Amino acid sequence: MGTSAIAELGQRARAASRIVALASAQQKNEGLLLAADLLEGRGEEILAANADDVAEAVGAGVTSAVVDRLRLSPARVASMAAGLRQVAALDDPVGEVVRGWVRPNGLQIRQVRVPLGVVAIIYENRPNVTSDAAGLCLKAGNAAFLRGSSAALRSNQAIASVLRAAYANASLPPDALVLVEDTSYESARQFMQLDGCIDCLIPRGGSSLIAAVKEHATVPYVIDGDGNCHVYVDASADLEMAADIVANAKTQRPSVCNAAESLVVHRSVAERFLPDVAARLDGVELRGDPATVGILGAHRVIPVTDDDYAREFLDLILSVRVVDGLDQAIEHVRRYSSGHTEAIVTADLAAARRFQREVDAAAVVVNASTRFTDGEEFGFGAEIGISTQKLHARGPMGLRELTTTKYLVEGNGQIRG
Amino acid sequence: MGTSAIAELGQRARAASRIVALASAQQKNEGLLLAADLLEGRGEEILAANADDVAEAVGAGVTSAVVDRLRLSPARVASMAAGLRQVAALDDPVGEVVRGWVRPNGLQIRQVRVPLGVVAIIYENRPNVTSDAAGLCLKAGNAAFLRGSSAALRSNQAIASVLRAAYANASLPPDALVLVEDTSYESARQFMQLDGCIDCLIPRGGSSLIAAVKEHATVPYVIDGDGNCHVYVDASADLEMAADIVANAKTQRPSVCNAAESLVVHRSVAERFLPDVAARLDGVELRGDPATVGILGAHRVIPVTDDDYAREFLDLILSVRVVDGLDQAIEHVRRYSSGHTEAIVTADLAAARRFQREVDAAAVVVNASTRFTDGEEFGFGAEIGISTQKLHARGPMGLRELTTTKYLVEGNGQIRG
């Protein structure tokens, strides 16, 4: 695909963005509900396209985990439809007056929430992202400009075709969802450089995708990065609560970014706590410092490396460190944190306050599982990702984070002296 | 300067950022007030360093405009000090609870405002930016990591040395201001790629600097871009008010980004309005479309080109277009706007509302000059720049825009089911 071809797709998305930016919540909701119905109504067509993708992936010998992420089922299609209905039920963020005031010269200033325009998303397998992302973009008044993976191309085409048809039925521009069908590396690069066309790029994928965006993107982007999340068990912690939290944070869904990857334990409770929590972590490989090995034994703990502390395992593996106190715990977290979610279990108010103040992460949690850093768990209804950077959005990104603001200034002839 | 040398400077700024992030407003204000006093107390030293910079620039034969931007005077030093005192008087944005709520499971969530960390600024001449930017960064709890131009190096060194001494006197880390003294192109490139060290880069300079940032930066950045600002005079406008606004927007300070560069006039009032406004714009070169030339005559108007419409003149030049109505006016603005500030002069409520809704810019103004899009005029007290992009900050950036947020989550043992 030449640069002009992908730029032309971008121009279609931009033209559509101007129309959906002005659409009423009612009209956008109608589009979402029609799309949900049509996803179910044309489910067979989507599943047939997906079966072709899956067959090709299996033929190419990819891992079963990859096939699992790629594969749709009637239940997954129903879940995509349910997701769109859920987004339709959320409040429209567009038009919110964020703040407003009057200047001494009489100028009235309001900062109001408006759509971003064209939101571009590059994503790997998981064809449900096509529907989820398009729905959130539409509700926030944006056009979705989507580039999925080659392995999911037929599935994505089928889903996009259904959504575009539904939009047309709701008198919305079909180009409120534009799918890039050229999944070459070169097209990804061109995509990231469509200045003046893409208002926000959200890459959803692994570290090589993030690195490519940092290297090549010239359009503004938000990084949905790794989660190397810690749970620190303080001297004063309720140890039963701490074991529940660690077990939940590590094992409830180890493959996601808000799962815990590292346990940090205050030395004064390590002897009592580590055996209890190790028993709760049956099946979890522990990689610990010498103190941990000393307490749990070499049969249960592998010696930890610096690399282990820095790693997001996304697996049933947990690094463990025993520290002398809160200072050392904060220092450890500061060194290895990816800025996603960090938790402390403590009964000590001063320790809780210091940890929350001094740890620099999107979410700092006291006495709860790291697994709650999530758009739905936060009450945003749905999320487009979790930002681990500090600009624009930090933490779970919902509809609000898919908007920007503009200032509306009103006067009666004011000029500047 | 090797990569490691600039990275080491960055690490110093990062270490300092952790301390200033936790400093109280009182302590930060003390640092700012001491810095203001010391700027005045050591004014001779700053002026001597500046005289060397100016002499070298004059010797190198740069334009008088460049020399003027570079040159300090006792009044300019006093104005830098006044700027720091003004920032000390502003409310501290850190710690503000942006919103907070309780989830059905009892989790308490607060989104609170926290410093960004290390704010990096690349800027051209104008040594006062060293003091202005450092002061704003400090008040928002950030370390300022500054890279000025080679022409202003001695001036910047002198100012930085004064501020660092004042910070030390206030028991703040001197590295809350780190100045990069290597002003080579290569160091600028390394600077933009200090991932994990710079939390936000704000380039302040011309289009070649912006292009370099887009091409090379891997750290997050906010673009303070061009202002190709329009004033649209609607059919229903109070034409006297319109002439006042156009004259003010064009001539009050033509060299700045919120000055008007283009006048768009409704055909039904063009015959009456254009001669009046042209008389008010004595000394302003007009570049107009055929209708404008027809009304004002070829002696007064140069035929406009498409390039003229797209240009930010920053000079006493104004492009002029006569349109058939609001639709065409919005279409014209949409095509050429740089997304900074767009104004309409109208008495028609529906026209005002449509213009504000449909024009996509940081500020959309009704019946006032474009010149008000400015941190001080908006009431923010001071500004670090004006963002023309949509992520993180849009429009004037004050202290609030130099912060991010984090989520503080508190529970009593909640785990995810």
Structural overview:
Two copies of one chain form a homodimer. The first copy, chain A, is α/β, with parallel strands linked by helices and 417 residues long. Chain A has two domains: 3-225 and 393-410, Aldehyde Dehydrogenase, Chain A, domain 1 (3-Layer(aba) Sandwich); 229-377, 3-Layer(aba) Sandwich (Aldehyde Dehydrogenase, Chain A, domain 2), CATH 3.40.309.10. Helices cover 44% and strands 21% of the residues of chain A. The first copy, chain A, contains 16 helices and 16 strands. Chain A has helices spanning 3-20, 25-41, 43-59, 64-70, 74-89, 128-139, 153-169, 185-191, 207-216, 239-251, 267-280, 290-296, 306-310, 326-336, 349-358, 375-378, and strands spanning 97-102, 108-115, 118-123, 143-147, 177-179, 200-204, 229-233, 260-266, 285-288, 301-303, 317-323, 341-345, 363-368, 385-387, 395-397, 403-414. In chain A, the strands form four sheets. Chain A has a seven-stranded parallel sheet with strand order 10-9-11-8-7-12-13, sandwiched between helices. Chain A has a four-stranded parallel sheet with strand order 5-4-3-6, sandwiched between helices. In chain A, helix 12 links the parallel strand 9 (285-288) and strand 10. In chain A, helix 3 runs antiparallel to helix 4 and helix 5 (74-89) runs parallel beside helix 6 (128-139). The radius of gyration of chain A is 24 Å and the shape is globular. The model of chain A has no long low-confidence stretch (mean pLDDT 96). Chains A and B meet through helix 10, helix 15, strand 13 and strand 16 of A and helix 10, helix 15, strand 13 and strand 16 of B. Strand 16 (403-414) of chain A pairs parallel with strand 13 (363-368) of chain B.
